[in-house]
Amino acid sequence: MAQDGPEQFDVVVIGAGFSGLYAIHRLRQQHSVVCFETGDGVGGTWYWNRYPGARVDIISVEYSYGFDEALQQEWRWPEYFSAQPALEEYANHVADRFDLRKHIRFSNPVTRMRFDGKTNRWHVHTANGDHVEARWVIAATGALHAPNEPAWPGRELFQGQVLHTTQWPREGMDLTGKRVALIGTGSTGVQATPIIAEQAAHLHLFQRTPAYSMPSGNRPLDPEFEADWKANYAERRQQMLQTWGVSLIDYPTYSALDCTPEQQNEILEKAWRSKNAFQLLTAFSDVMVNPAANNVVAEFARNKIRGIVKDPKTAELLCPTYPIGAKRLGNDKGYYEAFNRDNVTLVDAKSAPIVAFTAKGLRTTEAEYEFDVIILATGFDAVTGAMSRIAIEGVDGQTVAERWRDGPTTYLGAMIAGMPNLFMIHGPLTPAAQAQMITAGEWQINWTADIIEDLESRGVARIDTTPEAEQWWAQQVDAAAAMTVHNLADSWYNAKNIEGKKGGFMIYIGGFPEYTRACTEAVAGGYRGFVLTPEPATAPA
Ligand code: NA7
């Protein structure tokens, strides 16, 4: 292969998750496309995250593709909030139904890329030694892909098994009779806790920051609900795009502070039982923007914890003090209830942090613990990690990791100055994870594909953006974040989940309609914020 030079394609797609799959489908209609995928199967997030309890927290009739009417009419979701196996099965169905696999090279991650400014093409290299050249690259690398594994010393000494939740074996793991440590209380830890507690001889949950979580409203999908959605799918998909989070959640117009305590309580009780994962955050109009209103909801949630957990000391340790929703709200099936079991112990890893692995388990600043299995539910080098871990070299020889040393810079979350013809889906400073990601991803891919097709039809060989455009977008991102309570807690949203990681707010939370308006206006305004370079043959002499 090397002797004949690199293989030629129009488009390289990185990642065969939900966005990558649709990107292949959309682009291959007019282009030659190759996709490189790290895993040996499709599904991305829903391929990697097969830990016990892994389940989506958005109703599946929304969290699914809308690009093909027959697909959305024929596919049947078993439950309101699908579990990982159903989501992976769906991704596989889509890959087969639309014959996408022939474009995908599995177990073959992209390791480095270099833009050739003379030919205006990317050279893409992979772990298996592939070298391809393409005009366009679409990075659908996932906002929550690169695992965060704390660098405690001594991991090689531990005689049991250590694994991150993204490394869960496909065949499952029998934890029966095992002494298990689970570290982390984000969405993952909250989902996994009750299930592991049922299996393990004893579960120690190491908590650095407590989690707010709502009971999951999961249940088998009601046939009438399904039929109603299927009768109105096209219209609902359009309506979803007009909402802040690309989801048809009720958004009330009244403030928590305009209600009496009795009214507040009635509304919040209803929200708690609503079976909608985020209803507590949308119980009033101002939960996410007014700390006083937020505290009404936060105190309600804390009282729920105190009501469920029998041991008052454990209950208090489980009660968060930061605003509810500032970190991602959990969605669980018996999380707090698990602490009433005799075989579950909550460990305060804030006052006594974990400092090392030992031959038999873990050491904190206060004690030693013995385990058979240590599970790291420690989250991700989120939003930037997947891109930064590929050596991507732009026009001036600088890599993405170097450019983002002090935090990600992007224009509309889609492009990075000096990295021409490279488009990101759910990239840094997009609404990633604050918008329902399958539908939002489809929108971004269509916007990207339209740009590519438009530029090709006009003989444009290269599209780039500028540091000024990036700065303008950074201001929009920061302004949106400043209006909310999100910065009142440390999380992956603000790059404070990993010690030493720099960056401001990592995603745009001004709402999906504002985001898409900025994107469409930029293009309609003559590619405002972009720099277009024509094909050499048509360039002025
Ligand atoms: P998260 O939400 O980032 O949670 C990671 C958890 O791991 C969180 O509780 C962290 O505590 C904890 N953590 C991380 N490092 C350590 C160390 N060194 N010691 C103790 N505890 C640690 O990741 P998830 O996988 O749960 O969820 C990610 C997203 O997936 C979620 O937001 C949804 O969008 C779906 P911390 O809170 O930082 O103190």
From TrEMBL:
Task: Write out the entry's keywords from A to Z.
Answer: FAD, Flavoprotein, Monooxygenase, NADP, Oxidoreductase
Per its Swiss-Prot or TrEMBL entry, what cofactor is needed?
Answer: FAD
- Quote the InterPro entries the UniProt record gives: FAD-binding_Monooxygenases (IPR050775), FAD/NAD-bd_sf (IPR036188), Flavin_mOase-like (IPR020946)
At the top level, the lineage of the source is Bacteria
A molecular function annotated in GO for this UniProt entry is: N,N-dimethylaniline monooxygenase activity
* Short name of any one Pfam family annotated for the protein: FMO-like
Annotated PANTHER family: L-ORNITHINE N(5)-MONOOXYGENASE-RELATED
Q: Give the family this protein belongs to, as stated in its UniProt record.
A: Belongs to the FAD-binding monooxygenase family.
| The protein's name | NAD(P)/FAD-dependent oxidoreductase
Name the lineage: Bacteria, Pseudomonadati, Pseudomonadota, Alphaproteobacteria, Sphingomonadales
